User: Which sequence fits this backbone?
């Protein structure tokens, strides 16, 4: 029990864990689901039974679990079952089978989880097939269409457990056959096909392995009839279905079924079956399943010996051939598989009908269609490989048919031919006559140029292997793996080694030959010998050795052909010469090892090969063999035309071999041939020929020199010259090339020949002939040659001669009498070179030659010659530009420049060593002084240090070290000038030595830190009087082409200024000017940044001077000046001080000056003053730098106030004429320059100040409201200021107290514009409650009240507006300050200096707003005064005045209760006016009348006013007036006379509508008055007293009304719907 306890607990734990995992399967993350699946599988490895039971229980309990989650569990069960099938308990298997069966069939809809359940059954069926079948067969009942997955499970079981399942198939087929007719849905038909296919395959496998089967009595005919019955349904019915997937399922099934059909039935069906299958190719793009089934049918037909195939053969071949011709796409696997199946079909047919298949295929090799040829070749390869016995007697026929494909140039055809040749090799075709042509073709393809960069293949070219690579691989495989090819290939392949056209094939050829030779050696020592008596076409051993040795000279070319060639050479050692076996066995592996090290120098490698050749010749020691060898070498020379490197090496080999030849006649003969046949116009050829002569001269000096002299005197040379002279343009050039070669030959002879022999011949023979060839004479006059090759060859030859003398053992005793002449010639060459560029290596090589000439050769040069040599060389090199930049003959200009400097250095060193005296030392710098007379004397220490110190960061480490040494020496010399002893040690200067270590590595940080330290030392040691010259020269270093040095100059300048800048106050303007000019000159980022740092350093020491200097820059500031201003924003404290200075300059000067215009009648115009304008621009630049944020925040209020007032003072101000033209010029140069216009400039500066001060929201709000444009408008400036003030109140409230404090004094400014701006700003602030919150209300209100007497009318108006704004900004404070506010408004209405009543208008508008927050007692004392004061405005011609006065009157009626009678009188005074003005579209008369109604004591009138005078209703004026008059005469008949008199006043109104309405008004009054009161009016007097025609007419109409006419008869218009103030709708 105790032992079982832990296991039981583990099972519980495992079960619980599994349940937890299964609960998590609902997670939608695929990664989580996969991890759950893996975890269940892992648990199943340790406790399979428990996990399977847990899964079963979980799925039964969670019947509604979504199918994606069921799939995870079922797949895990399948995996656990598969991995543990051997140990699975029978009871557990039953549980799993039952669960999977139920899961699989619980839904008729096909789901993924049912597939998973089926897979579980298949997995269990591997061992428990009977249990599975027992369960599944219960759901497979006769006459009932089974579940889809029941059938699929049967099929899969038949595949996974063939021996267990086949015994059940007879009964399953018996039950299934009747069901085929019941299947109506495509998916059921497909699954039946799937089952029949797998049943057939399983039966075939069972029958094929009867010896292992549990029931060996099973036979094919057991199933034949059932299979045939099923076949009839599938082929005759379902194959005709329109659904493509079903047709493919039928085809897949019919193929395996054909093996099991009765033979006679199959034979009977073939005439229908094969055409039916072939017809499907046209219906289906994907042909693999068709081809697979067709192949199975063909095999079944052949197996039964069918006679029907003969009839079908042409159709089969004609259909299958295009399938192969269509290229297979490797990215689509089914197309490749289809090719395989079609080729299998051809195999079946070729085995049965070889003659007819070949007769069909071979003519197609001549087709013009590339695909047809390629496809046919693929089929040929297939049948050669798969039908060898049938093709045996066809070999000659097939070989002869390949002639045309061998000539095909198409790459795809070539690849196919190579594959056919490979197949032929395996089956003995190449041993037949004609096989050699196949091998030659293969080698030719190996020799194709390798494709370094392969072109994008076309759509059909779907293989990535090139013809060459396939051919190389094929050749190697045939050599190494096909034993029967050994005698075919050996020694036949040797024929392809020497022809030059097979060079690219040498590597595979050598590898194959080496392998073949080694196999021959294994057969016996003599077997590898080349039998020349049996193989007349084979190359000789001399030819093979020459060829393999020459190609080895380029060891890495052609896929490392050098290694392959040497290894083959080693294998052929006995065939080349028996004496070479020991030497080559030792030396060749060593040479191969050198190649494989991959670090070969070409020169060293050639020397090793030539040494190997020498040792070979010494080992052979047979003059006859050597003579044949060298003759063969010379014969091969012309083969290497086009291979200059190999040919050059072959020349060296010839020279080496001639040197070993003892036959002097042969040596001279071969040298003569070489001179006669050389291609002199090729540089490599000239070099090779000269090398050959030089090497030959080691052993044959006399013969070599004699042959060179004889050649010049020979007819061959004279004929060449004569022939060339026919072609004037060519003659000189060709002859010069021959002369160049001969001169070079002498140089090589001198350097290679034994020194004891050659020294005596140098001047007497060699130099004499060299100069004879070099100097051309015309009519006895020496003519300088212009041929560069001839010059270079002469220089090189003389250099080699000098080296020969220098290296000679007796050089100390040798007197070179022509030394001065040769040096003079070199000097002439150097002088002839251009000084502006280095295009050729002439000066460099001439200086190298001079170095050898002057080294130790006697006699010494004379002083004049020595001086001229030094002067010429220095002038030629030092005059060159620092960037040589040009290339010639593939030599980089910078490399040539460096080599030339090295040559100059070596020459000067040699001259010093030859004359190591003070006089000799003095000669060297003399040209420097003579050629550079402008160099500043030493006492100008600053300039010299400035020249050297930036080079401490030069890109060359050696220059950096020398530069420190120079500064070190200069500072000690200065100390000596100051009186210190020569042995004095200065600790600070000595510190420079410690810096040199850090300058070894090119780390920029270290380099510039060292430059800083050097500058600190220099700053402390340079005298004050030289500090400025040091800085000026250092500034020149900013333009140094070496960017490291340019950066170093910037570091040093700034370090010096930090250290000593405080004493340079008077020089600051000059330094600033230099900085600006350098910024213009050098367009480098590091220079710009450093210059800004320089400005900052100067400003930190001399603020005022820097600011004044920058303010003096021309306007508009260019980009460099702007950058200098922005550099002042780097440090908040300094930036604040700079900003304060600029604010002081803006405020100190007047903003503009008045200038009278010359135009007649024009007034004066305002012209901006330059200093405030420049300061404003400077403020903009500094504040545009993000670093200025802190300083701007600290000076927010003064900056804002100054810039706000600057804006106000520049509205309408013009630029000076000079600046206007300058701005136009800058506009044309720059695409979108910032405007220099004073007002625009001020606005932009204010905007950037707000943004940098953290008030971006203010900027955006003002911009979206159009405030910035308003500010610049002279007419709307105050409106723009109001927008700004509102935005400040909303978004920058905490900034306002200081702003208000700074603005208050400007209310007393002498400039109206500043008072207007401040008043407008304050007025809008009062519109916000923020002034109350910040306790600014009283301050601002008092200042507004104080502005009522301002001489500027706009200021007075804005002040009243501000006081009125208190009603919206601080309504709760209106009553508190009511008396003051009312008094201000009344004073405003009484303003005498207000010709256009604008102040009065503002007072009335503001008072209307204030009344909403006052009570009756607050206004009682002023009520009548105000009413009387505003009455005249009712008739004003200004709509605004009328509107404001009438609205105010309406508002006043609210306060008339306590003095009702007095105010009623005012209502009567205005009643006629208000009624007549009802036709005014801009008025608010309806509102006033509605307000007056309750105070008139007439309920009828009050109702009429309230009901008819609403803005949303239209009004018929005539009818309305009729009713009004009716109520008036009923309630106030005594007022008739007064009303009529008031109307009479409007008879002369300027408005026609009112002139017409007034008489009508009278008429309606008369109409409704009673007779007692009617006597008061004399109507005749009214009519006679009116002189205006329209009024007379109206009067008559009015009398007509009085006589009883109706109102609508007089054509009076109606007033449309009453709308918002300022709009109207009038209807006739």
Assistant:
């Amino acid at each position: 029990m105790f032992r079982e306890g832990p296991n039981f607990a583990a099972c519980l734990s495992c079960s619980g864990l599994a349940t937890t995992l299964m609960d998590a399967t609902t997670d939608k993350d695929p990664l989580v689901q996969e991890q759950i699946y893996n975890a269940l599988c892992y648990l199943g490895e340790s406790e399979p039974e428990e996990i399977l039971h847990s899964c079963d229980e979980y799925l039964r309990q969670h019947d509604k679990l979504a199918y994606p989650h069921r799939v995870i569990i079922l797949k895990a069960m399948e995996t656990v079952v598969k991995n543990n099938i051997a140990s699975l308990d029978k009871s557990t298997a039953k549980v799993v089978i039952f669960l999977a069966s139920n899961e699989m069939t619980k839904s008729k809809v096909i789901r993924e989880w049912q597939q998973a359940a089926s897979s579980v059954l298949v997995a269990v069926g591997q061992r428990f097939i009977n249990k599975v079948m027992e369960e599944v067969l219960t759901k497979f009942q006769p006459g009932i269409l089974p579940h889809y997955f029941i059938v699929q499970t049967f099929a899969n079981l038949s595949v996974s457990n063939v021996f267990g399942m086949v015994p059940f198939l007879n009964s399953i087929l018996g039950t299934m056959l009747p069901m085929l007719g019941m299947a109506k849905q495509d998916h059921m038909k497909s699954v039946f096909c799937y089952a029949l296919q797998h049943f057939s395959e399983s039966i075939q496998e069972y029958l094929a392995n009867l010896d292992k089967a549990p029931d060996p009595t099973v036979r094919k005919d057991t199933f034949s009839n059932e299979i045939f019955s099923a076949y009839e349904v599938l082929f005759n019915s379902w194959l005709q279905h329109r659904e493509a997937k079903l047709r493919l399922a039928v085809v897949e099934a019919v193929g395996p079924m054909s093996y099991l059909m009765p033979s006679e039935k199959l034979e009977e069906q073939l005439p229908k079956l094969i055409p039916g299958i072939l017809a499907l190719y046209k219906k289906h793009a994907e042909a693999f399943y068709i081809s697979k089934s067709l192949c199975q049918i063909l095999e079944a037909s052949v197996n039964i010996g069918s006679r029907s195939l003969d009839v079908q053969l042409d159709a089969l071949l004609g259909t299958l051939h295009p399938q192969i011709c269509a290229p297979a796409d490797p990215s689509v696997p089914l197309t490749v598989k289809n090719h395989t199946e079609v080729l299998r079909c051809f195999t079946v047919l070729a085995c049965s009908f070889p003659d007819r298949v070949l007769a069909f295929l071979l003519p197609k090799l001549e087709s013009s269609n590339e695909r047809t040829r390629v496809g046919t070749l693929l089929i040929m390869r297939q049948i050669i490989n798969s039908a060898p016995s049938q093709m045996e007697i066809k070999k000659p026929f097939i070989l002869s048919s390949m002639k045309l494909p061998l000539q095909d140039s198409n790459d795809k055809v070539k690849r196919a031919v190579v594959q056919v040749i490979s197949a032929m090799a395996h089956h003995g075709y190449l041993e037949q006559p004609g096989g050699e042509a196949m091998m030659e073709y293969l080698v030719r393809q190996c020799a194709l140029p390798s494709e370094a960069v392969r072109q994008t293949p076309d759509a059909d070219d779907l293989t990535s292997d090139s013809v060459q690579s396939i051919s190389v691989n094929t050749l190697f495989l045939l050599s190494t793996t096909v034993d029967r090819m050994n005698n075919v290939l050996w020694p036949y392949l040797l024929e392809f080694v020497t022809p030059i056209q097979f060079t690219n094939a040498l590597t595979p050829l050598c590898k194959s030959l080496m392998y073949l030779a080694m196999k021959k050696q294994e057969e016996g020592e003599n077997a590898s010998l080349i039998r020349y008596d049996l193989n007349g076409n084979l190359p000789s051993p001399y030819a093979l050795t020459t060829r393999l040795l020459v190609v080895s000279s380029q060891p890495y070319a052609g896929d490392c052909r050098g290694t392959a060639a040497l290894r083959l050479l080693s294998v052929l050692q006995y065939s080349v010469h028996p004496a070479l076996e020991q030497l080559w066995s030792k030396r060749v592996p060593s040479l191969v090892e050198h190649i494989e090290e991959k670090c070969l120098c070409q020169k060293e490698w050639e020397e090793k090969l030539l040494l190997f050749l020498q040792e070979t010749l010494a080992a052979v020691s047979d003059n006859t063999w050597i003579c044949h060898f060298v003759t063969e070498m010379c014969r091969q020379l012309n083969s290497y035309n086009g291979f200059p490197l190999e040919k050059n090496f072959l020349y060296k080999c010839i020279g080496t071999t001639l040197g070993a030849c003892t036959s002097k006649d042969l040596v001279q003969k071969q040298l003569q041939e070489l001179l006669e046949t050389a291609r002199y116009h090729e540089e490599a050829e000239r070099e090779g020929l000269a090398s050959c002569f030089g090497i030959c001269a080691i052993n044959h000096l006399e013969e070599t020199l004699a042959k060179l002299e004889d050649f010049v005197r020979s007819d061959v040379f004279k004929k060449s010259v004569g022939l060339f002279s026919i072609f004037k343009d060519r003659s000189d050039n060709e002859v010069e090339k021959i002369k160049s070669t001969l001169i070079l030959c002498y140089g090589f002879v001198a350097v290679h020949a034994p020194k004891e022999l050659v020294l005596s011949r140098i001047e007497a023979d060699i130099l004499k002939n060299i100069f004879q060839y070099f100097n051309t004479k015309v009519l006895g006059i020496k003519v300088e040659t212009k041929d560069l090759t001839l010059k270079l060859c002469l220089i090189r030859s003389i250099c080699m001669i000098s080296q020969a003398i220098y290296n000679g053992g007796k050089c100390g005793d040798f007197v070179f009498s022509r030394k001065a002449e040769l040096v003079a010639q070199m000097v002439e060459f150097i002088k002839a070179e251009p000084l502006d560029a280095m295009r050729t290596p002439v000066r460099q090589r001439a200086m190298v030659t001079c170095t050898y000439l002057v080294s130790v050769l006697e006699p010494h040069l004379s002083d004049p010659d020595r001086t001229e040599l030094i002067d010429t060389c220095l002038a030629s090199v030092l005059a060159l530009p620092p960037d040589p930049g040009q290339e010639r003959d593939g030599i980089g200009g910078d490399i040539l420049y460096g080599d030339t400097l090295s040559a100059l250095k070596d020459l000067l060193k040699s001259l010093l060593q030859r004359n190591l005296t003070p006089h000799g030392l003095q000669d060297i710098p003399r040209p420097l002084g003579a050629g550079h007379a402008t160099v500043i004397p030493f006492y100008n220490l600053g300039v010299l240090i400035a020249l050297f110190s930036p080079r401490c960061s030069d890109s060359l480490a050696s220059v950096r070290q020398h530069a420190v040494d120079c500064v070190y020496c200069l500072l000690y010399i200065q100390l000596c000038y100051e009186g210190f002893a020569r042995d004095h040690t200065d600790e600070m200067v000595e510190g420079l030595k410690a810096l040199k270590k850090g300058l070894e590595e090119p780390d920029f940080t270290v380099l510039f830190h060292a430059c800083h330290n050097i500058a600190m030392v220099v700053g402390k040691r340079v005298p004050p009087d030289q500090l400025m010259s040091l800085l000026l020269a250092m500034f020149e270093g900013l333009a140094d082409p070496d960017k490291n040095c340019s950066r170093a100059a910037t570091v040093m300048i700034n370090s010096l200024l930090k250290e000593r800048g405080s004493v340079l106050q008077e020089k600051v303007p000059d330094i600033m000017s230099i900085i600006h000019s350098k910024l213009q000159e050098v367009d480098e980022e590091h220079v710009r940044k450093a210059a800004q740092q320089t400005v900052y350093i100067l400003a930190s020491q001399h603020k005022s001077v820097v600011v004044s200097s920058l303010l003096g820059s021309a306007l508009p500031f260019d980009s460099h000046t702007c950058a200098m201003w922005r550099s002042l924003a780097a440090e908040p404290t300094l930036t604040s001080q700079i900003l304060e200075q600029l604010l002081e300059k803006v405020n100190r000067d007047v903003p503009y000056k008045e200038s009278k215009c010359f135009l007649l009648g024009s007034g004066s115009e305002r012209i901006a003053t330059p200093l405030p304008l420049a300061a404003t621009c400077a403020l903009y630049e500094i504040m545009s730098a993000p670093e200025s944020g802190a300083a701007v925040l600290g000076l927010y209020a003064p900056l804002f106030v100054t810039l706000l007032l600057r804006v106000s003072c520049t509205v309408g101000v013009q630029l000076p004429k000079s600046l206007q033209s300058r701005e136009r010029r800058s506009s044309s140069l720059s695409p979108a320059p910032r405007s220099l216009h004073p007002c625009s400039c001020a606005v932009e500066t204010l905007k950037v100040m707000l943004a940098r001060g953290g008030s971006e929201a203010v900027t955006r709000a003002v911009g979206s409201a159009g405030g910035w444009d308003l500010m610049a408008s002279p007419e709307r400036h105050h409106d723009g200021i109001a927008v700004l003030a509102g935005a400040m109140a909303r978004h920058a409230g905490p900034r306002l107290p200081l702003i208000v404090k700074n603005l208050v004094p400007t209310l007393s400014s002498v400039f109206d514009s500043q008072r207007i701006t401040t008043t407008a700003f304050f007025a809008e602030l009062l519109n916000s409650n923020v002034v109350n919150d910040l306790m600014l209300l009283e301050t601002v209100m008092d200042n507004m009240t104080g502005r009522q007497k301002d001489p500027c009318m706009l200021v007075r108006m804005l002040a009243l507006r501000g006081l009125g704004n208190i009603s919206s900004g601080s309504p709760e404070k209106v009553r508190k300050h009511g008396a003051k506010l009312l008094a201000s408004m009344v004073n405003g209405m009484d303003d005498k200096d207000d010709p256009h009543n604008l102040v009065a208008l503002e007072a009335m508008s503001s008072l209307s707003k204030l009344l909403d927050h006052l009570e009756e007692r607050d206004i009682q004392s002023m009520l009548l005064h105000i009413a009387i004061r505003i009455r005249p405005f009712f008739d004003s011609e200004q709509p605004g005045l009328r509107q404001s006065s009438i609205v105010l009157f309406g508002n006043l009626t609210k306060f008339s209760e306590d003095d009702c009678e007095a105010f009623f009188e005012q209502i009567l005074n205005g009643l006629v006016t208000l009624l007549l003005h009802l036709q005014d579209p801009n008025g608010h008369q309806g509102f006033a009348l509605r307000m007056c109604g309750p105070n008139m004591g007439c309920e009828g009138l009050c109702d009429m006013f309230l009901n008819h005078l609403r803005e949303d209703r239209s009004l018929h004026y005539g009818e309305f007036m009729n009713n009004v008059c009716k109520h008036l005469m009923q309630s106030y008949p005594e007022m008739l006379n007064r009303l009529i008199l008031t109307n009479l006043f409007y008879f002369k109104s300027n408005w026609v509508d009112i002139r017409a309405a007034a008489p009508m008004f009278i008429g309606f009054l008369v109409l409704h008055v009673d007779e007692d009161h009617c006597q008061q009016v004399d109507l005749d007097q009214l009519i006679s007293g009116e002189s205006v025609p329209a009024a007379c007419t109206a009067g008559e109409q009015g009398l007509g009304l009085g006589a009883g006419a109706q109102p609508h008869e007089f054509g009076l218009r109606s007033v449309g719907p009453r709308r918002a103030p300022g709009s109207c709708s009038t209807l006739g």
